[in-house]
């Protein structure tokens, strides 16, 4: 089975063809660099995404503070993670890097604050 | 709610009528179906106080226009509204059009318009160096002026309210009955009774009159699109530049505004729905094509917004002002199209006279104050004035709209003024916050925040211009 | 009147980097004047990641990238006034500013760095016909509502413009529960990064319609729908291709304009293409002692380059303050054959260091050569796999290249296919 995708490892945007058999990658063609090969393999078998959003903050200058996943999470888990994050709130003061949710959905990834809020 | 007089429609006409009547010891209500005044044709027209050469001699339009020009000076002075006497030119673009200018000159003189003259090519170019190549001459009307129509209206309502009139928003009149010598108005704000009703409902004035069975008023909705250009273009011309009029109106004009922008428009198209103020591609194209004939340097690259307004064109072709034949206590001030803004002070004066006649005289209030205090206009102040102002009130030290240099203090003033702003567009029209080149991109959310705080409501209840025009929905978290 | 060596107008990434560099070079009295309540500029609302790959070698969110500079500024004695708006700059470099705690203030400066950033092009500049209900806003305004104020500005969304801000907002709105119906792009290509097309649109099944624009807006109070249409090669809507899309929100991501009102007031000459000041290789404008950097100078796609450019301006301002930046012989740079503009526009041929000319192309080129020449001599020629308008490019000019130039020379950058 052949699958195609456009590489996003850099702005070049190479069209990549991936040959698959029984869920295994047989070959990757069309890429111009190693990063393209690596990207294609992950993207086709287990696509990962960084998640950025915001979380409610109590007693903050602003009502929300931005957060990100400390590492990429499986693409298919984004909305499930959003659900958990939307149920969470933190108390001001918040600092950059504060862990807001530890090991979200057991994925081994934390949700951490990406801005500070010194509180009112 | 019981009143002596109910004025329907808070456009420039209703506003100034209410203000003129507020000098008498009577209870007046100004009913407006929108969330603010100046929401119809008043907020979207050419903003010109016409000299008065255009209207047919002997018509109400001619009489009230010329009288309006006279009165406008006093009104603007009392209400502290900037009025700029920049003069107008009607430009002929071919020798064939030149006789048309003579015709306008004769008409103007018959109407009593002072100082009119026709100039040739060279003199015209000396007056307006950016005029189009093909221009061969122009009628010069030195008494023509520019004014901000919604600012005049807002100031009028504010002054009327200060003098005791009541401004009732979101109040659409649905039914009118006449019982025991009184009108009973069923409105979206409940029942309102009044001995006299003044119909200043603009494009809807025909419908309002028919509520009492007066079907004599036939209004055609004439739609016009406009472009507003950046302040950097405001000095392309100094006069208001007209082309020769057609039967659809005065044609496309190019004019500076009192705030230093350049206005270009309108198109003219008759439509069915008086509430449809969507601009059209055809209309916008047409005004651009016509505008560059007058002033080739007009470039849409510098457009900051486009908008459109609906003028109430009466099929009778003249203003309809006076007691209704159905009930003399119902006074029409209807079919007010151009030169409606120019005539508005004179229409107010005329309706005042009619009221005095109908009532057999009214007693003046002892404490009537014709002056609307000048709002703080930080952008026009010197450094010393600014420093002093901020010392008195820190809110004037915080600039909210950076394009127009509008302070938080001015926005707070606009919200708490008599008949003050309730929505983002209301703040915009009162203060100019969001009126500049970024069109509220930066300050829009700040204005929402200030409105919510000052009115004591959550941010997502603030609207752009009332009704369902909400800016935000629910909280994200 | 406060006396400063350097006044920096704007406390975003550009202003902070320029101030920090000037401090590093030994400038003592520096003040940053920032309009918003905090330092950081527009990065504060750009909560997505993708910042800092070049400069820090790691992928940061906007607030994190800004945070690193804010921390550095706070560790110095650089004065910072936030919530403070600059009203004007006089010809003798007196900066008048205002806020609601100190009132009107005047800062006398030896040098000024302009770092006011840019603003989004509003709807008015587009002449889209139709009504003007609530629900039509720039993508950046929506971004502020969602990320800072915590409110949703819409539920069913159409986005016009596929630059990175438009793409990022498509994902952001979707993650927060909105339905993004389509992203329309007037051009035949997206100005955004391929990565953003994949991760912001494809991931969520949001269609990208190229050569397509919004021709009309509908709705009385709140937006009820838009009419979109395909456009021809002249970018004019093609009759008969109109399609109505029901939505309550239209986000516009149709270009950024450097905010040069202050610059114009003080008489700084602007480049007609960049809409930013004309500068030399130290980012000094034609007004002596006034420097410019970041998005006020040219719209950047990467903040990393903003930082780089602002450090150059900070160094230039320091040299100026110490009297080290003297005269010289300046020649012009010029972009032709597909090169839309070059920054800097002027170069001192007596310069003794390598310098970079930044430029943008006007269309997509594949396998083309970037050629630099002067007085008919080719100075460099480099083949590029791909050149796109959305990505800023640069070429290096060495002191050796400058050696043979005269006051009448002109450095030309062109694309050769």
Question: What would a concise description of this structure say?
Answer:
By secondary structure, chain A is an alpha+beta fold. Helix content of chain A is 18%, strand content 37%.
Question: What does this protein look like?
Answer:
- The complex is a heterotrimer of chains A (120), B (477) and C (417).
- Chain A is α+β, with helices and mostly antiparallel strands and 120 residues long.
- Chain A folds into two domains: 2-45, Single Sheet (N-terminal domain of TfIIb), CATH 2.20.25; 52-113, CPE0013-like fold (Roll), CATH 3.10.530.
- Chain A is built from two helices and ten strands.
- Chain A has a five-stranded mixed beta sheet with strand order 8-5-6-10-9. Chain A has a three-stranded antiparallel beta sheet with strand order 1-2-3, covered by helices on one side. In chain A, strands 4-7 form a two-stranded antiparallel ribbon.
- In chain A, β1 (2-6) and β2 form a beta hairpin.
- Chain A is elongated and about 55 Å long.
- Chain B is globular and about 65 Å long.
- Helix content of chain B is 30%, strand content 23%.
- Chain B is α+β, with helices and mostly antiparallel strands and 477 residues long.
- Chain B contains twelve helices and 22 strands.
- In chain B, α2 packs across α8 and α10 crosses α11 (424-431).
- In chain B, strands 1, 2, 9, 10, 11, 12, 19 and 20 form an eight-stranded mixed beta sheet that branches. In chain B, strands 13, 15, 16, 17 and 18 form a five-stranded antiparallel beta sheet that branches.
- The longest helix of chain B has 20 residues, at 60-79.
- Chain B starts with a strand and ends in a 22-residue tail after the last helix.
- Chain C is α/β, with parallel strands linked by helices.
- Chain C contains eight helices and 28 strands.
- Chain C has helices spanning 13-24, 62-74, 139-149, 164-175, 194-201, 261-265, 303-321, 399-403, and strands at residues 2-9, 30-33, 49-51, 60-61, 79-81, 85-89, 94-99, 103-114, 118-120, 129-130, 136-138, 156-160, 179-185, 208-210, 212-218, 225-230, 243-246, 249-252, 256-258, 290-292, 330-336, 339-343, 346-348, 355-361, 365-374, 377-387, 393-397, 410-416.
- In chain C, the strands form seven sheets. In chain C, strands 1, 2, 5, 6, 7, 8 and 20 form a seven-stranded mixed beta sheet that branches. Chain C has a five-stranded parallel beta sheet with strand order 11-18-12-13-14.
- In chain C, α1 (13-24) packs parallel to α2 (62-74) and α4 runs parallel beside α5 (194-201).
- The longest helix of chain C has 19 residues, at 303-321.
- Chains in contact: A-B, A-C, B-C.
- Chain A binds chain C through residues 5-8, 11-13, 32, 49-54, 56, 61-64, 66, 68, 75, 78-79, 82, 96, 114-116, and chain C through 37, 44, 47-49, 59-61, 63-64, 67, 146-150, 172, 175-176, 193-195, 198-199, 203, 385-386, 388, 391.
């Amino acid at each position: 089975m052949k699958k195609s995708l456009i590489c996003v490892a850099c702005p070049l945007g190479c069209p990549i063809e991936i040959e698959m058999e029984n869920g295994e990658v047989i070959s990757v063609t069309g890429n111009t660099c190693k990063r393209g090969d690596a990207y294609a393999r992950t993207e086709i078998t287990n696509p990962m995404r960084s998640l950025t959003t915001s979380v409610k903050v109590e007693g903050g200058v602003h009502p929300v503070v931005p957060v990100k996943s400390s590492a990429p999470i499986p693409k298919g888990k984004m909305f499930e993670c959003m659900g958990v994050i939307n149920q969470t709130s933190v108390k001001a003061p918040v600092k950059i890097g504060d862990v807001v949710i530890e090991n979200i959905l057991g994925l081994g990834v934390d949700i951490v604050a990406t801005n500070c809020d010194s509180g009112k | 709610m019981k009143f002596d007089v109910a004025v329907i429609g808070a456009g420039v006409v209703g506003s100034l009528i209410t203000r003129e009547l507020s000098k008498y010891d009577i209870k007046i209500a100004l009913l407006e179906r929108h969330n603010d005044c100046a929401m119809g044709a008043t907020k979207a027209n050419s903003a010109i106080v016409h000299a008065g050469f255009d209207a047919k001699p002997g018509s109400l339009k001619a009489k009230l226009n010329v009288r309006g020009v006279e009165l406008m000076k006093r009104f603007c002075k009392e209400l502290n509204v900037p009025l700029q006497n920049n003069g107008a030119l009607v430009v002929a673009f071919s020798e064939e059009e030149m006789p048309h200018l003579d015709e306008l000159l004769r008409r103007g003189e018959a109407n009593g318009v002072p100082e009119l003259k026709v100039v040739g090519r060279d003199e015209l170019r000396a007056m307006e160096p950016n005029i189009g190549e093909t221009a061969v001459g122009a009628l010069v009307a030195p008494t023509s002026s520019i004014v901000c129509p919604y600012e005049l209206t807002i100031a009028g309502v504010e002054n009327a309210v200060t003098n005791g009139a009541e401004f009732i928003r979101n109040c659409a009149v649905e039914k009118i009955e006449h019982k025991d010598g009184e009108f009973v108005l069923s409105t979206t704000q409940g029942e309102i009774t009044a001995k006299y009703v003044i119909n200043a409902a603009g494009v809807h004035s025909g419908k309002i009159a028919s509520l009492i069975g007066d079907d004599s008023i036939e209004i055609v909705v004439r739609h016009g699109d406009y472009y507003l250009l950046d302040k950097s273009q405001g000095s392309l011309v100094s006069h208001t530049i007209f082309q020769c009029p057609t039967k659809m109106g005065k044609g496309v004009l190019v004019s500076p505004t009192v705030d230093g922008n350049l206005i270009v428009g309108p198109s003219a198209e008759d439509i069915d729905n008086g509430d449809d103020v969507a601009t059209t591609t055809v209309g916008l194209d047409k005004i651009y094509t016509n505008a560059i004939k007058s002033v080739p340097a007009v470039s849409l690259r510098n457009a900051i917004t486009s908008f459109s307004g609906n003028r109430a064109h009466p099929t009778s072709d003249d203003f309809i002002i006076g007691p209704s034949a159905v009930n003399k206590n119902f006074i029409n001030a209807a079919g007010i199209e151009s030169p409606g803004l120019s005539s508005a002070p004179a229409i107010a004066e005329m309706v005042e006279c009619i009221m005095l006649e109908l009532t057999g005289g009214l007693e003046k209030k002892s404490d009537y104050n014709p002056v609307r205090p000048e709002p703080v206009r930080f952008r026009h102040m010197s450094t010393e004035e600014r420093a002093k102002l901020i010392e008195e009130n820190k809110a004037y030290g915080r600039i909210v709209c950076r394009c127009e240099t509008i302070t938080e203090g001015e926005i707070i003033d606009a919200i708490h003024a008599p008949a003050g702003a309730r929505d983002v567009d209301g703040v915009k029209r009162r203060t100019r916050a969001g009126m500049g080149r970024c069109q509220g991109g930066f300050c829009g959310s700040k204005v929402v925040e200030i409105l919510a705080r000052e009115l004591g409501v959550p941010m997502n209840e603030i609207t752009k211009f009332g009704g369902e025009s909400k800016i935000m929905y629910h909280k994200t978290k | 009147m406060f006396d400063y060596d350097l006044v920096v107008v704007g406390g975003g990434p550009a202003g902070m980097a320029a101030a920090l560099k000037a401090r590093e070079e030994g400038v003592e009295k520096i003040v940053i004047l920032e309009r918003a309540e905090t330092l950081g500029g527009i990065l504060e609302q750009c909560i997505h990641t993708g910042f800092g790959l070049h400069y820090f070698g790691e992928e940061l969110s906007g607030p994190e990238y800004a945070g690193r500079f804010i921390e550095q500024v706070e560790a110095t004695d650089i004065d910072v006034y936030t919530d403070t708006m600059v009203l004007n700059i006089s010809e003798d470099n007196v900066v008048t500013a205002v806020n609601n705690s100190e009132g009107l203030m005047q800062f006398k400066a030896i040098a000024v760095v302009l770092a006011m950033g840019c603003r989004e092009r509003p709807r008015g500049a587009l002449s889209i016909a139709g009504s003007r209900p609530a629900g039509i806003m720039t993508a950046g305004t929506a971004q502020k509502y969602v990320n800072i104020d915590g409110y949703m500005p819409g539920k069913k969304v159409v986005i016009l413009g596929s630059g990175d801000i438009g793409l990022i907002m498509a994902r952001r709105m979707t993650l927060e529960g909105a339905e993004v119906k389509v992203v329309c792009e007037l051009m035949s290509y997206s100005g955004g990064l391929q990565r953003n097309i994949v991760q912001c649109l494809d991931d969520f099944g949001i269609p990208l319609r190229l050569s397509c624009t919004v021709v009309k807006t509908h709705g009385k109070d709140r937006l009820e729908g838009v009419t979109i249409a395909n456009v021809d090669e002249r970018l004019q809507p093609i009759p008969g291709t109109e399609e109505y899309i029901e939505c309550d929100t239209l986000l516009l991501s149709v270009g950024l304009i450097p905010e040069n009102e202050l610059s114009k007031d003080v008489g700084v000459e602007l480049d007609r293409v960049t809409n930013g000041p004309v500068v030399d290789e130290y980012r000094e404008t034609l007004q002596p002692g006034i420097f410019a950097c970041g998005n006020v100078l040219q719209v950047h796609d990467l903040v990393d380059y903003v930082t780089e450019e602002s450090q150059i301006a900070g160094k230039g301002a320091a040299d100026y303050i110490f009297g080290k930046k003297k005269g010289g012989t300046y020649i012009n740079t010029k972009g032709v054959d597909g090169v839309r503009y070059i920054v800097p526009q002027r170069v001192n041929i007596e310069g003794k260091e390598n310098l970079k000319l930044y430029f943008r192309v006007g269309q997509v080129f594949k396998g083309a050569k970037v050629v630099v020449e002067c007085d008919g001599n080719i100075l460099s020629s480099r083949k590029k796999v791909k050149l796109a308008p959305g990505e800023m490019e640069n070429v290096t000019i060495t002191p050796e290249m400058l050696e043979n130039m005269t006051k009448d020379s002109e450095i030309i950058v062109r694309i050769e296919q």
